[in-house]
Amino acid sequence: MKVKKILLLAGDFVEDYEIMVPFQALQAVGHTVHAVCPDKKAGESVATAIHDFEGQQTYSEKRGHNFALNASFDAVKPEDYDALVIPGGRAPEYLRMNDKVLAIVRHFALADKPIAAICHGAQLLAGAKVLEGRLCSAYPACRAEVELAGGRYAEVAIDAAVTDRNLVTAPAWPAHPAWIGQFLAVLGTRIE
């Protein structure tokens, strides 16, 4: 297996499972993952939020863990990375206002490098204007952003994911097995 160097974009109140699980799972199969956040350095942390589905009209939100970043945002050169992971939570709503973050996302999209986005991560894809004509799943409340950005919203089960060429998306953390599995396939990762 060829080890891939993967960039993971984080921000305060990123969804807890949606950052921790892919960060750990991708490393567990041998890939290198650099988790970064604008205005923060390696060794600093972001606060996470836990989103749960408890029967209300939308998810509930609770304070999660502190997630330690292992790389510095200012040092990121997207051309040095093979793939991108965009977790959900509240972080994408404000990360999409950062020009450098948008340029990073556009680099991966224009270079046809693998991108995995989950839940509210679609807001960052929409903000970077990389969804035109693309099939994209997201948390159902983000359907408007996907469609306004010219994407085709994939209405799939909460535990399902969808792949459109290099783009792997899912509605929320219950889809981790499908989402991470499809992303590994796009990366060319074979587990024997």
Description:
- This protein is of the alpha/beta class.
- The protein has one domain: Class I glutamine amidotransferase (GATase) domain (Rossmann fold, 3-Layer(aba) Sandwich).
- 29% of the residues lie in helices and 25% in strands.
- The chain has six helices and eleven strands.
- The protein has helices at 16-28, 91-95, 99-110, 121-127, 143-148, 176-187, and strands at 5-9, 14-15, 32-36, 45-52, 60-68, 83-86, 115-118, 135-136, 152-153, 162-164, 167-170.
- The strands form three sheets. It has a six-stranded mixed sheet, with helices on both faces. Strands 2-4-5 form a three-stranded mixed sheet, covered by helices on one side. The chain has a two-stranded parallel ribbon with strand order 8-9.
- The chain is globular and about 40 Å long.
- The chain starts with a strand and ends in a 5-residue tail after the last helix.
Record keyword descriptors for this entry.
25% strand, three-stranded mixed β-sheet, Rossmann fold, globular, 29% helix, 192 residues, 11 strands, alpha/beta
Strand content: 25-35%
Number of individual domains: 1
CATH architecture: 3-Layer(aba) Sandwich
Strand elements, count:
11
Q: What is the CATH superfamily classification?
A: Class I glutamine amidotransferase (GATase) domain
